[in-house]
Specification:
The two termini are 33 Å apart. The protein has one domain (6-189): Alpha-Beta Complex (Spore Coat Polysaccharide Biosynthesis Protein SpsA, Chain A), CATH 3.90.550. Helices cover 44% and strands 20% of the residues. β1, α1 (19-26) and β2 (32-38) form a beta-alpha-beta unit. The chain is built from 10 helices and 8 strands.
């Protein structure tokens, strides 16, 4: 797998303010393919993306899971990396991904998480994410999940649910092998935590996870999540 191409799939919705920076930084790297899948943006996200890369799709009414699956369907790389639009990959990410997936019994991987912002409470969030990822092997989508295309296809891709698609996917593929955490962090925007506050945002996230384990429908959980004024889609 040492020389495999990596397809980076970015689901977006109204990300005109940040997508140019994300794509411009990725374009500096060779050995990757960049695919943007828009969910029906009302701003200039698609126009900006088309000015920088050639593979830009629009898939409406499917949510982020459907967007990522659509991106995977046209991906040419042997490795798929699912990246949030407001997240920057670490230096040397290509080598790190290949080395991580080459480890024995590893089916998929992700990075550690760093959050932009000086608030000390964000450092606590980062620490909790690190503990959850390494002890429970449960990275979330903002940690840039990566997997071989073959394993992704065999697993059936992301479930058609309106929220928690990353959580459900990781739980499901853990039955196929180990989830490894690469020894570097992606850096994600602090906007989600800044909007409602760090602890309120963290509390809402935990409510969603508890609701998932209590078999509350993803549709109801998604409606609750969006009613809290969150940025995510």
């Amino acid at each position: 797998m040492a020389q495999c191409m990596i397809s980076i799939i970015i689901p977006v919705l109204n990300e005109g303010a940040i997508i140019k920076q994300t794509l411009s930084e990725l374009k500096q790297h060779s050995g990757i393919e960049i695919i943007v899948v828009d969910g029906g943006s009302q701003d200039n996200t698609v126009t900006i993306a088309q000015q920088i890369i050639t593979k830009v799709l629009t898939i409406t009414g499917k949510g982020r899971a459907g967007q990522m699956n659509a991106g995977a369907d046209i991906a040419q790389g042997d490795i798929l990396l699912f990246l949030h639009a407001d997240t920057q990959l670490p230096s040397g990410f290509i080598k790190l991904i290949r080395e991580t997936l080459n480890q024995p019994n590893v089916v998929a991987g992700a990075f550690e998480l760093a959050i932009e912002g000086s608030d000390r409470s964000l450092r606590w969030v980062e620490m909790l994410v690190k503990m959850r990822s390494r002890l429970l092997s449960l990275p979330y989508g903002d940690q840039a999940i990566f997997i071989s295309q073959q394993a992704f296809i065999e697993s059936g891709g992301f479930a058609d649910i309106s929220i928690m698609e990353d959580f459900e996917f990781i739980k499901r593929i853990k039955n196929r092998g180990r989830i490894a955490i690469a020894p570097a962090a992606v850096t994600t925007s602090g906007r989600r935590w800044q909007k409602l506050g760090v602890w309120q945002t963290t509390l809402i996230n935990q409510f969603i996870i508890i609701g998932y384990y209590l078999d509350i429908s993803p549709q109801k959980l998604g409606n609750f999540y969006r009613s809290q004024g969150k940025k995510e889609f």
